Amino acid sequence: MTEEKSLNFIEEIVEEDLGKGKYESILTRFPPEPNGYLHIGHAKSICLNFGLAQKYKGATNLRFDDTNPVTEDVEYVDSIKFDVKWLGFTWANELYSSDYFDELYNLAVKLIRKGLAYVDDSSPDKIAAEKGTPTEPGIENEFRNRSIEENLLLFEQMKNGKFKDGEKVLRAKIDMKAINMHMRDPIMYRIKHAHHHRTGDKWVIYPMYDFAHGQSDSIEHITHSICTLEFVPHRELYDWYIDNLEIFPSRQYEFARLNMTYTVMSKRRLLQLVNEGYVSGWDDPRMPTISAFRRKGYTPSSIRTFCDKIGVARRDNLIDISLLEFCIREELNAIAPRVMAVLHPVKLIIDNYDENETEELVSENLPNDPANTRTVSFSKELWIEKEDFMEVPVKKWFRLAPGAMVRLKSAYIIRCDSFIKDNDGNVTEIHATYIPESKSHHDTSGINVKGTIHWLSVKHATKAEIRLYERLFTVENPAMEEGDFKNFINPHSLEIIPGAFVEPQLQHAVEGEKFQFIRHGYFCVDRESKPGEMVFNRTVTLKDSFKK
RNA sequence: UGUCCCAUAGUAUAAAGGUAGUACGACAGAUUUUGAUUCUGUUUGUCGAGGUUCGAAUCCUCGUGGGACAACCA
């Protein structure tokens, strides 16, 4: 059965353009500003832009929109390139808006010559005041009707550094009474005596987004310039520049940006979390950045699958984080080797087991591949999870309790005989009897138990640090709450367990290596992990249908 | 109180005037040496009112609700 997947609205546009012969092939671009790390919302855009090109045999440029030197940095350029590659995409050309500064300057001159741009000496406040409001028209000022010659001279002097920051701007001469605010003589160039990460000190004037983005698209012959909804009002300007500059007509299409529950997606807020120390950095696994998901143990394909499932449309959305979690679980379930780890250990002593004996028991690494096995050492003293024992069990309790029987995964069925508590009432030791005939794969005991728990031999287990991550916020949409979004940070978003135990062969696991810790979830080796001081991050829990 | 964009189960996303479907979630059951996985089933939807039409989620009008727009940011 070949069920045809329906097209999203951008694919429909592309197919129509291709079908009509408007283009022979498409060219898209991914245009990040190098002033922050990429997040999952960017992944949606990356998958859309690169995915479209792949699907329709076109190409995609990676273009850094680096027209504001004061906020941009090569650190971000490098991280962005790394993340795009990691997601599995290859760009046709690595480009920078700053590559076009000369060309952009000439285009600006062209507009001045056509009488469609002028130098304005007004202060920022004055310009803002004269701009009007969405409901009131703006007004024209005294600089608007300077002669072409004067504008040409002034603009050149701006370029040559004759003026200080903010003294003058170049504006397009469109319509101060336009209903669309963006058409009220938008600023094209501003003066910034700032060092640029690529052009150095060559320029002291820099183009604004609207006089750089569309022109860069046009220079590259981008056919479909895809951006998010907040640029809808810019489209009129985008087209105006193209028409009046008489350059290649790239077309802009807008889709709804990704929002996800229990996180924030704006760079501004993400930067605050980093700068104010709420997280350890851009790749803190609680962040929604690509680098954080990577560190947390997500795979590129799980993120691509997610982006495919959420679709592309024009309505505002708030995607349930559980969909992303589903995507990574689905993938890791198939490939992550199973291993046992005890996070909150309590000692279990098998009273009828010889203290000098050790058995190497066979355990499967993947449930669907019984031939793929390892051995696990079993002995008299074991670590089990504190949570797997209840002195007074709740109803439907399948695990350990006084008198109750459970199976130790890949080992024996045991019966709990007694337990010891300390002065604070904490259970410190549990005693049990094992059933020799119930050995895994050789069970002749005829006993059926409901519960299976994991364990580790005390003298064989390796100590490790395990970091458990929960959602960073306590509310679905922190950005929409009243007041500071940081008031809704989850105080329990990170739990560090320094004294967990794992199977000994995990000492040799390398950074990024992924496992399923049975009954806990998926984990991977953190980049801070060192031999002898292993650190594991929880990628995602297993689904848990048990409710107390 | 201007212009623009948008409105389909809890969340997303299909149905180009002709059976409202899919995924995730939730719930229930079966299987299970992971309370996982797998399998089965259930649940819940076209914002409202008019109109056009044999027939409207789809087209039109008017409401209602949400979002965007007044950075020398992108």
TrEMBL record:
<dbReference type="InterPro" id="IPR011035">
    <property type="entry name" value="Ribosomal_bL25/Gln-tRNA_synth"/>
</dbReference>
<keyword id="KW-0436">Ligase</keyword>
<feature type="binding site">
    <location>
        <position position="228"/>
    </location>
    <ligand>
        <name>ATP</name>
    </ligand>
</feature>
<feature type="domain" description="Glutamyl/glutaminyl-tRNA synthetase class Ib anti-codon binding">
    <location>
        <begin position="336"/>
        <end position="434"/>
    </location>
</feature>
<feature type="binding site">
    <location>
        <begin position="39"/>
        <end position="45"/>
    </location>
    <ligand>
        <name>ATP</name>
    </ligand>
</feature>
<feature type="short sequence motif" description="'KMSKS' region">
    <location>
        <begin position="264"/>
        <end position="268"/>
    </location>
</feature>
<dbReference type="InterPro" id="IPR020061">
    <property type="entry name" value="Glu_tRNA_lig_a-bdl"/>
</dbReference>
<dbReference type="InterPro" id="IPR014729">
    <property type="entry name" value="Rossmann-like_a/b/a_fold"/>
</dbReference>
<feature type="domain" description="tRNA synthetases class I (E and Q) anti-codon binding">
    <location>
        <begin position="452"/>
        <end position="526"/>
    </location>
</feature>
<feature type="short sequence motif" description="'HIGH' region">
    <location>
        <begin position="32"/>
        <end position="42"/>
    </location>
</feature>
<feature type="binding site">
    <location>
        <begin position="33"/>
        <end position="35"/>
    </location>
    <ligand>
        <name>ATP</name>
    </ligand>
</feature>
<dbReference type="GO" id="GO:0004819">
    <property type="term" value="F:glutamine-tRNA ligase activity"/>
</dbReference>
<dbReference type="InterPro" id="IPR020056">
    <property type="entry name" value="Rbsml_bL25/Gln-tRNA_synth_N"/>
</dbReference>
<dbReference type="InterPro" id="IPR000924">
    <property type="entry name" value="Glu/Gln-tRNA-synth"/>
</dbReference>
<dbReference type="InterPro" id="IPR050132">
    <property type="entry name" value="Gln/Glu-tRNA_Ligase"/>
</dbReference>
<dbReference type="GO" id="GO:0005829">
    <property type="term" value="C:cytosol"/>
</dbReference>
<feature type="binding site">
    <location>
        <position position="65"/>
    </location>
    <ligand>
        <name>L-glutamine</name>
    </ligand>
</feature>
<protein>
    <recommendedName>
        <fullName>Glutamine--tRNA ligase</fullName>
        <ecNumber>6.1.1.18</ecNumber>
    </recommendedName>
</protein>
<dbReference type="Pfam" id="PF03950">
    <property type="entry name" value="tRNA-synt_1c_C"/>
</dbReference>
<dbReference type="InterPro" id="IPR020059">
    <property type="entry name" value="Glu/Gln-tRNA-synth_Ib_codon-bd"/>
</dbReference>
<dbReference type="GO" id="GO:0005524">
    <property type="term" value="F:ATP binding"/>
</dbReference>
<dbReference type="GO" id="GO:0006424">
    <property type="term" value="P:glutamyl-tRNA aminoacylation"/>
</dbReference>
<feature type="domain" description="Glutamyl/glutaminyl-tRNA synthetase class Ib catalytic">
    <location>
        <begin position="26"/>
        <end position="333"/>
    </location>
</feature>
<comment type="subunit">
    <text>Monomer.</text>
</comment>
<dbReference type="InterPro" id="IPR001412">
    <property type="entry name" value="aa-tRNA-synth_I_CS"/>
</dbReference>
<dbReference type="InterPro" id="IPR020058">
    <property type="entry name" value="Glu/Gln-tRNA-synth_Ib_cat-dom"/>
</dbReference>
<keyword id="KW-0067">ATP-binding</keyword>
<keyword id="KW-0547">Nucleotide-binding</keyword>
<dbReference type="GO" id="GO:0006425">
    <property type="term" value="P:glutaminyl-tRNA aminoacylation"/>
</dbReference>
<keyword id="KW-0963">Cytoplasm</keyword>
<feature type="binding site">
    <location>
        <begin position="257"/>
        <end position="258"/>
    </location>
    <ligand>
        <name>ATP</name>
    </ligand>
</feature>
<comment type="similarity">
    <text>Belongs to the class-I aminoacyl-tRNA synthetase family.</text>
</comment>
<keyword id="KW-0648">Protein biosynthesis</keyword>
<dbReference type="InterPro" id="IPR049437">
    <property type="entry name" value="tRNA-synt_1c_C2"/>
</dbReference>
<feature type="binding site">
    <location>
        <position position="209"/>
    </location>
    <ligand>
        <name>L-glutamine</name>
    </ligand>
</feature>
<dbReference type="InterPro" id="IPR004514">
    <property type="entry name" value="Gln-tRNA-synth"/>
</dbReference>
<dbReference type="Pfam" id="PF00749">
    <property type="entry name" value="tRNA-synt_1c"/>
</dbReference>
<keyword id="KW-0030">Aminoacyl-tRNA synthetase</keyword>
<feature type="binding site">
    <location>
        <begin position="265"/>
        <end position="267"/>
    </location>
    <ligand>
        <name>ATP</name>
    </ligand>
</feature>
<dbReference type="InterPro" id="IPR022861">
    <property type="entry name" value="Gln_tRNA_ligase_bac"/>
</dbReference>
<dbReference type="Pfam" id="PF20974">
    <property type="entry name" value="tRNA-synt_1c_C2"/>
</dbReference>
